[in-house]
Design goal:
The chain is α/β, with parallel strands linked by helices and 431 residues long. It is built from 13 helices and 14 strands. Helix 3 packs parallel to helix 9. It is globular and about 65 Å long.
Length: 431
Amino acid sequence: MTERNSTEREREILNRANSVMPQGSLGNLAYDLIASRGKGSHIWDESGNEYIDYLLGSGPMIVGHAHPSVTEAVIGQIENGTTFFATNEKSVALAEEIVQAVPCAEKVRFCSTGTEATLYAMRTARAFRGRDKILKFEGGFHGMNDYALMSTLPKKLLEFPQAEPDSSGIPESISSEVLIAPYNNIEITAAIIEGHHDEIGGVIVEPFQRLIPPKAGFLEGLREVTARYEIPLIFDEVVTGFRFAYGGAQEYYGVIPDLCTLGKAVAGGFPLTAVAGKSYLMNHFDSDSVVQEDFMPHIGTLSGNPVACAAGLAVLEILKKPGTYERIFETGKELMTRLQEALDQVEVPAKVIGEPVLFDVFFTREEIYDYRTSIRGDREMLKRFNGLMLENGILKGNTKFYFSTEHDQSDIQATIKGFQAASARLSDGLL
């Protein structure tokens, strides 16, 4: 284990942040760390500490930091202009690639954030259906818009389908427009949809909810019941798109929604997201394709920004190379196994949950299959584990390990040593 250095410069920047930023940070990460630079699978802070990076900017750096191909593409576009507020060839090319890759995608509309993408996906569904309510799943995260921030981290476990706002400042009326269902329970979900089908504009779900894989038959059942009532099914694939497979989670799990949202991996570290889906739904963005009352305007200053699109195209070209996903999955599977082994060896009650490309540890022996089972884990133990990993030169998110194409065998071996050291320290704390 190595002790983190803390230089006067980094402390100075942290003090400056405290004076001008709420919480003295961007609000994203729990560590007192000022990021300085990244290269490949590693990142450095302002004090010069080096970390193996499993945070990866919260997921977008799937080909690592400062990849030469992405850097070249970005510089090439910057030399020809950074933004136009007009359709450009790079945006057209990226939309074409998305349509070719993603099963549900027939047309694409670009946005700048995941929050914006999910907002427009839900609006599209409501425009098509002419119904106001959205059904989402307890514990599901869909960005920071008002409809999304319902029962994401509820403090009260209300009776389904009642929604609880996650934030102050949300109009009280929004709660009545959102129905909440339990993830991985198709029986209760189907009953809610059947009972409210004439009110529901759309259903939005993370096909892989945070870190929880779908049970066998859950996504298939959700697809069947929404199709039966002609309710648009939205897969929020901001996290899983181009990560679980080139066609995303809908390819990986073999269930095709009507609409999806994309982000993170598709943008190569730039602020670009997308709504993609069937033409008859996406035509609500086109005033020439629908009657005026069904038209849904969408304007974004940086939507389809050519620099971001150039980066996205470069990333997708890398991901398309044969064997890319196999290597990422192999790395993740090995680390999942070795983390569970390290915790078991020192008899720390824990379960490693997720898929090989995206996982974390829950400090509990109980089965995890939805939000209510996930909160039984010891969050203070997870916080301590994250801190111990950081001390061992491994940076991860508060609740996730992400993987890139650039993590190599030396990274894996160092990470396994970090697992062993952190697990031993956790065990000491239990004695």
